[in-house]
Amino acid sequence: MHYLQPVKFGQLSLHSSANVGMDKGDVTLFFGLSGTGKTTLSADPNRLLIGDDEHVWSDTGVFNIEGGCYAKCINLSSEKEPEIFNAIRFGSILENVLYNPATRTPDYDDVTITGNTCCAYPIEYIPNAKIPRMVDRQPSNIIMSTCDAFGVLLS
């Protein structure tokens, strides 16, 4: 899709997350490399999630081309990120996450394998997901997140 959208359809494909305001309908795009907070920022309980990773920005608006979410799981908790934590259930796929075989409870704090633990889940597992995953308006907010030696910077 990242090849076809620009070449065949003249639309800009993006590695970004996107959400839209419930009241004003203002669209926000979040840009950044993996691990800079796109998924966390876009899973705002007060906004509708268009998608957390792959989008197309066209003359008519923004739409998601992924259909699911892919979140970092390291130190995940229901207190810090309730939308993402609660989305991890039957039908989700955990990656590099250890779990207790007796209780089948994931241990999101265990970095024995790697600190790069992730989970994939359908976007419908987020209660405020925008279905269909598209909006017919242009973004009014663009957030670029970067990571440096001191932490995450938002501009």
Automatic annotation (TrEMBL):
Task: Name its pathway.
Answer: Carbohydrate biosynthesis; gluconeogenesis
Question: Could you tell me the keywords of this UniProt record?
Answer: ATP-binding, Decarboxylase, Gluconeogenesis, Lyase, Nucleotide-binding
* Gene3D superfamilies attached to this UniProt entry: 3.90.228.20, Phosphoenolpyruvate Carboxykinase, domain 1 (3.40.449.10), Phosphoenolpyruvate Carboxykinase, domain 2 (2.170.8.10)
Per the record, its GO cellular-component terms are:
cytosol
Does the keyword field hold Lyase?
yes
**What's an example of a GO molecular-function annotation for this chain?**
ATP binding
Return one Gene Ontology term, BP aspect.
gluconeogenesis
Q: Which InterPro entries match?
A: PEP_carboxykinase_ATP (IPR001272), PEP_carboxykinase_C (IPR013035), PEP_carboxykinase_N (IPR008210), PEPCK_ATP_CS (IPR015994)
**What is the catalytic activity of this protein?**
oxaloacetate + ATP = phosphoenolpyruvate + ADP + CO2
Q: Which domain of life is it from?
A: Eukaryota
> What EC numbers are recorded for this enzyme?
4.1.1.49
Supply the enzyme class, top level.
lyase
> Glycosyltransferase: is it a keyword of this entry?
no
One of this protein's Pfam families, by short name? PEPCK_ATP
The family line of this record is: Belongs to the phosphoenolpyruvate carboxykinase (ATP) family.
Q: Which named protein is this?
A: Phosphoenolpyruvate carboxykinase (ATP)
Question: What's the source species' lineage?
Answer: Eukaryota, Fungi, Dikarya, Basidiomycota, Agaricomycotina
